[in-house]
Amino acid sequence: MTTHGFSLFDTAxxxxxxxxxxxxxxxxxxPGAREPETRARVxxxxxxxxxxxxxxxxxxxxxxxILTRKMGAYGLPQHLRITIGTGxxxxxxxxxxxxxxxxx
Length: 104
Known about the structure:
The chain is an alpha+beta fold. It has helices at residues 35-39, 54-63, 87-103, and strands at residues 5-11, 14-21, 24-29, 41-45, 69-70, 79-83. Strand 2 (14-21) and strand 3 (24-29) form a beta hairpin.
């Protein structure tokens, strides 16, 4: 059984999301005013390696002006929540994550 993860799914009121961890359900997301608002939230998982973990990624991204949210308080210590608004912002985040992964 997977001890952590997330899923997006369609409902009668729109696209919803749910995240779970070792303690059970750790987060839900009801539809935003528009579907893109729901789809824009990404939960990224990082390895346990201290040089490549969520804390290291958080610091790396923050040093490049990219703000994320640590998910440890929600039972997902190796995850960051990343909210992406536009195509160029998504490309910036993807490039920074690629740089972080390559440097580690």
